[in-house]
Amino acid sequence: MRVKALFVVFAALAIGVLQAEDLVNIPSSKKNFHLFLLMGQSNMSGGVNIATGDTQPVPHVLKMRYTKEGEEPKWAPGAHPLHPRRPNKKARFGPGLSFAETYVADKPGVMVGLIPMAWGGRSIQQLGKGSGIYSDAIRHTQAAMQAGTLKGVLWHQGESDTIDQARTDAYEKKLHRLIEDARKDFGNPQLPFIVGNLAEFYGTGKDHKAPDRVARITRIREILRSLPKKVPHTGFVESTGCSPAARAKVHFDRNSCLLMGKRYAKVYADMISNP
Hints:
The chain is α/β, with parallel strands linked by helices. It has eight helices and nine strands. Helix 6 (165-186) links the parallel strand 7 and strand 8 (193-196).
């Protein structure tokens, strides 16, 4: 029977009918399948095009595919692109896989499951509880938790909330509320929640350098940086030394995405070792 099963697999591969999610092996123990929810806007989903080799899977990392409500959850090998829903539909490179690869490097026997739910160009209001994006994030994560253990949420967002003063003024309260809502929905009041800073170069491009816009960008940075002092079990990732992907100076370039992913992993490790 085993020989026959192997023959079926090889035959399916040969004719191209076996899907990627049919080939993944999920750990039998929840404690060895570490889940991370990726939320935010384009600097989490990715603001630069993928390059040759980026579609190759990272060992010991899986990504959850987007499924409609009522469909069975599906896992696929961890490879770019991660996020299924960008307004411009382009495949992009973000920090998620760099985080996962760094995180799992010193954890033999552990597999990481990424749940990519970021969506470019969205404000925190459009990502918070009551929105379709938030509902999808909760639904997919709760489905993933049937097989694994949710270890944390990675958040990179805020650019869209520098557009006008009202959004900026409301941002801190909405961020704190979003963290509270997510922890309640996942049943974990101490769930680690890590935020990344807006890029240092954001606010220097010709479209975003008006004095009032720069002031709002500065305010969002202050809110993000102060989060660990105000909300327990949260972390902050600095964006120093990163470079832009284009002249618009909004998105991180490829090397900066890699760097930010590693920094998220470092902050997470520090949070766990020094709670």
